[in-house]
Amino acid sequence: MLGEGILKGLAETAxxxxxxxxxxxxxxxxxxxxxxxxxxxxxxDFPFLVYDGDDAMAGLRCVSCQICExxxxxKCIYITKSADKKPxxxxxxxxxxxxxxxDVSVCMSCQICVEVCPFxxxxxxTEFELSTEDRFGGxxxxxxxxxxxxxxxxxxxxxxxxxxxxxxxxxxxxxxAKAKAAAEAAAAKAAADAAAKGTADATAKAAESAAKSAExxx
Amino acid sequence: xxxxEMKSGIDSGIKSYLPPVIEVxxxxxxxxxxxxxxxxxxxxVFRMDVALDGERVVRLKPVFGYLHRNHEKLAExxxxxxxxxxxxxxxxxxSMTNNWAYALAVEKLAGLEVPERxxxxxxxxxxxxxxxxxxxxxxxxxxxxxxxxxPLMYAFREREKILDLFEALSGSRMMCNYMRFGxxxxxLPEGWLERTKKIVAELPRFIDEMEALLTGNEILMARAQGxxxxxxxxxxxxxxxxxxLRATGVNYDVRKVDxxxxxxxxxxxxxxxxxxxxxxxxxxxxxxxxxxxxxxxxALPQIPDGPILDPKxxxxxxxxxxxxxxxxxxxxxxxxxxxxxxxxSGNPYRYRVRPPSLINLTIxxxxxxxxxxxxxxxxxxSVDIVLGEVDR
Lengths: 218, 392
Known about the structure:
heterodimer, A: alpha+beta, Alpha-Beta Plaits, 3-stranded antiparallel beta sheet, 7 helices, about 15% strand, elongated, B: 3-stranded antiparallel beta sheet, 8 strands
């Protein structure tokens, strides 16, 4: 019969239309600003800098190695290296960025900077409502705007942040163990040196006294 | 083969490329229409300069390049890894398969091994990509036919579920940037496989629904059957691949021909068309979705545990040995290939993409000549292109 296919299709549409009144599952859209879908954990949009502790600028993990600046595909990261050094999370003196700007209007959210960073200093944010009428003031984020605490990182990507913390703790433990071993070795060496020096001194003294006594005898 | 023989071979090849000449009664009464670059049917910015004799198309000249972004030259100026996010933006409907093709080329170049688990993840993501691409391609085709909304929205409803899976896996819905040289970037998040299994189990119902809506529809049959016919000879000569080629009856699927990845382990069939018209292309897309579901149903329970990245692969300071490599896969739109030459430095010396969309589009004039102008839009839609890949 001509038109049978059309009627069959219309029946399918009617089924879907009526179904949306019965089943919540068939309502696939939400009204965005009022209703929001739950955040998916791995979501990423723009990078931010992680800091430890309370002082954002003092606690930045970034050591200004400029690898991300070099590897960034659209070249939207601008870093200026500091002249002096400050201690990092293991206590080693490192450079820090005096300028760290990301132009988020150029950034394409590819996450390459996160992957190449050897210091777990740059991570992906989930904040997407960034629209502004000020292109240069509002979309070039400086290090003050980019710095976000490790707690915030835990809040947005819990699984990933826990892994990162475990890795950093392991590294720190390794460094500390190494430092401890080095200190012990140094102490042992010093002790050995002292002992050796002591024996040498004793021998010298003995020789001296022997010579003196010999002189006396003479 | 002598030079003369080669030349005659090329000559005969070129002859079969020449489009048929349509007889026109009065050449000076032709109406020239520029369809595009901003035309809702062109899937982006693309222009067709059409010469019409009444309703009939006499000449058609495709004009593209409006979306040129210098992809290949940019890639030659940056590191291998830095081109990976740009491949997402070629065919932005299928970023996972684009990633795979590029990763495959670099793996061949550098001799990296992909771990078992990563191979399974790649197959699963690629087949999910194929399902969502074909569903939306059918939706867009119907949109161009005047079925404004319903089929496209049904397709997008299903596509959204798959994109949510991609977001949970890679962090981004469309610009996944997920594959790496020698594996994948991150492991599957918790519960991802279960969610995927659930969504894949619902896919056949969606495909049935799509078929109930469209397959027997008289309007679709009247407008699509016998329109935009492509002959197998022309398709092979022009290098057309993918659904376009298989709709003409040529059995060529890179998954079966090239044995890349682990496709040998799954049993699936390659659907073939008979007539090479728009309806065959529509039907083939439906059937391919069913075959993709079959592959997914086999791959999901089999996925092994283990590492997901070759330990030799590294994000910084990647310098493959001098040499060349061509990696190709069956992307949803056809054979997608990446050709790379390395000179031993951190950047590729030559980087070339074989885009299926562009090459499938070259026979547009041959399909459109003699057809009605309203069908041009339909024929164009049935090629299933993304301008990001055509212009690069």
